[in-house]
Amino acid sequence: MDIVESSYTGFLDDAEVYDALEQMWLSWFNEIAIEHDILLAPFFNNLNADGEKIRDANPIFSGLEPSKNRLLRILQIPKEEVEEIYIQGWTDVFGAEEEEEGIEELVIDLVLSDTAKVIAKEWIIKWLVEAIDREEMEEILEEESVLVEEEDAIDPNAENLPKRDQMSL
What we know:
With 169 residues, the protein is an alpha+beta fold. Helix content is 29%, strand content 21%. It is built from 3 helices and 5 strands, in the order αββββααβ. The chain has a 5-stranded mixed β-sheet with strand order 1-2-4-3-5. The protein is globular, with a radius of gyration of 16 Å. The two termini are 18 Å apart. The model is unreliable at 148-169 (pLDDT under 50).
């Protein structure tokens, strides 16, 4: 079974589960950062004005790569909201009316699964390590976004994950 979220069921309703999930994402990214020599500084504030932690998974993880001035934001939705394996991404410019003045951002929206994590890692490497341009990243995101019925789940250990147009939707 591909879904790994079972340990984090109810993360939007249970602060302890949410905090464990947030820690999982931080540990997962730290492994990528060490492997690829990426520095990522926390970016989005997840506290309300009164200091209470916001636990809405938007984002569940974020960071700025200062040397490339690129932002990463991961949004997580509960499995209950999507009955399939799901990951999609897009790029944006954060913090400015003019694109040249803002911070280029990669946003990844997913239901936590082994497959989604494999694809997200590939996208993060392309964005933060290889520093491909936004246009090329958008093409990759369009091709590789996944919405697959569970019985058609992909082996996350496969060498070549199928492209979106090769999958049953």
